[in-house]
Design goal:
The structure is a single chain. The chain has about 475 residues and is of the alpha+beta class. It has four domains: about 80 residues, Sandwich (Immunoglobulin-like), CATH 2.60.40; about 100 residues, Phosphorylase Kinase, domain 1, CATH 3.30.200; about 180 residues, Orthogonal Bundle (Transferase(Phosphotransferase), domain 1), CATH 1.10.510.10; about 60 residues, no CATH class. About 30% of the residues lie in helices and about 20% in strands. Helix 3 packs antiparallel against helix 9 and helix 6 packs across helix 8. The longest helix is centred in the N-terminal third of the chain and has 20 residues. The radius of gyration is 25 Å and the shape is globular. The two termini are about 20 Å apart. The N terminus is likely disordered.
Length: about 475
């Protein structure tokens, strides 16, 4: 059956569609010392921009925490939970994003994404990283549908194993090794990108494993909610083995839960891909063992199976954890900006903040009434602290202005079987099922349904604000995930 695009019709019984999407920042937006130049990519939990550092002129990539299903962007650029029911989950994901940025800044390896700066601003958080030039491994696999040779894949795997070994030495498991999370630089080797911590935290809270895992690459222990099924370095080894399997054969392996029920994966040793030697296929097969104890237990063990030399001493390092940073808020004439400035100024006074934050939630006036100790400071310093406390009390007591109305969105309702990756305007938005609806900015949108067992289905969708457009398609039998 061919794809069927139904005319967009509002559903009166359902009421207006929920605002669950937040638009990326526009070109020209300012973030600390950076100016946004354009959009590099967007997923369900973050956006990556191309930006320019004003002080140095350096081109960088900036990632913003932006969980599309939970957040709304206000007119002043700030992000917030789209509904009170999402507030706790939004905050938990934000903490995960910040923790990941601090970890990546702590672990240094040439094949691990470098964090140049990380900060909180506008109700969300950002991290700046080098602008790595090169295709993702996913793009390279698509360009070689017949598979890539073992020599090339060993060259890709070697630096990735070094990055994983460095993370494991720091007590962290990556848990998100996949082709779209690897950039292959033509002259400098592969780089492993972020850990997807925000996605995992949110997935844990909503108990939705399909949100947090990438089918085909996640080992079975990442699906389990059992302390006896531990996640460890061997979990990343499985994911890397799945990546190498996909790259060598041109076909992604079946998801590990399906393999538990009926393992349809044929070991590579039974049908060696062209250009792949016995040692390579044996290493990939070992890495993809379903039982964790049957796999190589570390990145170094996997390196040895692949016949790769150890990295020179000092290639990786672990530095002290950098302190968290909150960026100064731009001055704004509106009350939101004035209030934020007062809060930031008061936060700079460590003594008063410690007294305030250390209390249980109580009357705001306690902050201003707490005596300011005469600890030998000048009278001007004491008066400044008293004034900051009084300003904080006044700002906190001021009625909160209502947030600006959210921008209108269009809704795309999907009914695809057996499954497909959904791409909108060249950006991967998820897999259906479980994905059933998407929110889009109004306008003409190119929607692609991709299933490796059939040709890609491409549609032009007229996304209208406040309307729901339905897309239905059934791929021919035989498609596997």
């Amino acid at each position: 059956m061919s794809a069927r695009l139904l005319a967009p019709e509002p559903d009166p019984a359902a009421g207006p569609p929920p605002v669950v999407a937040a638009a990326p920042l526009p070109p020209g937006a300012s973030l600390c010392d950076f100016t946004i130049e354009g959009l590099l990519g967007q997923g369900g939990f973050g956006v990556v921009y191309r930006a320019r550092q004003r002080s140095s002129g350096r081109a960088v990539a900036i990632k913003e925490y932006l969980p599309a299903q939970l957040a709304v962007r206000r007119a002043d650029g700030t992000l917030a939970a789209a509904a009170d029911a999402h507030a706790a989950t939004y905050a938990a994901g934000l903490r995960g994003f910040v923790d990941e940025a601090r970890l990546l800044a702590r672990v240094r390896h040439p094949a691990l994404v470098e964090v140049l700066d990380a900060w909180e601003q506008q109700g969300t958080a950002y991290l700046a990283m080098p602008l790595y030039e090169g295709p993702t491994l996913e793009r390279l696999i698509q360009a070689h549908p017949g598979g890539m040779d073992a020599g090339t894949l060993r060259a890709v795997a070697a630096p990735l194993l070094g990055a994983l070994d460095a993370l494991h030495a720091a007590g962290c498991v990556h848990r998100d090794v996949a082709p779209d999370n690897v950039i292959v630089r033509p002259d400098a080797g592969a780089v492993l990108l972020d850990l997807g911590a925000a996605r995992r935290v949110i997935g844990d809270r909503v108990r939705a494993m399909t949100v947090m895992l990438k089918a085909g690459y996640a080992p079975i222990e990442q699906y389990a909610d059992d302390p006896d099924c531990r996640i460890g370095p061997w979990s990343d080894v499985y994911a890397l083995g799945a990546v190498l399997h996909h790259a060598a054969t041109g076909e992604p392996p079946p998801p590990s839960p399906l393999r538990v029920m009926r393992d349809t994966r044929t070991p590579l040793a039974g049908r060696p891909p062209p250009g792949c030697d016995d040692g390579f296929v044996a290493a990939v097969d070992a890495a993809m063992a379903l039982r964790p104890e049957d796999r190589p237990q570390s990145a170094r063990a996997m390196r040895a199976l692949l016949g790769l030399q150890d990295e020179p001493p000092g290639t990786a390092s672990i530095v002290p954890v950098p302190p968290a940073r909150v960026a100064p808020v731009d001055r704004r004439p509106a009350r939101w900006g004035a209030r934020a400035l007062v809060l930031a100024a008061a936060a700079a006074l460590a003594a008063s903040v410690a007294l305030w934050v250390g209390r249980d939630a109580g009357p705001v006036q306690d902050v201003a009434e707490t005596p300011v100790a005469d600890d030998g400071r000048s009278g001007d310093a004491i008066r400044t602290e008293r004034a900051a406390r009084a300003a904080l009390q006044e700002a906190a007591a001021r009625p909160m202005p209502p947030p600006p109305a959210a921008p209108p969105v269009a809704t795309l309702r999907l009914s695809v079987s057996p499954w497909a990756e959904v791409w909108v305007d060249g950006v991967r938005r998820g897999v259906t099922p479980p994905l059933k609806t998407l929110t889009l900015a109004p306008g003409r949108r190119r929607v692609e349904l991709r299933n490796p067992a059939a040709p890609t289905v491409a549609l032009q969708v007229d996304a209208r604000a406040g309307r729901t457009t339905e897309v239905e398609h059934r791929f021919a039998a035989g498609g596997t995930r």
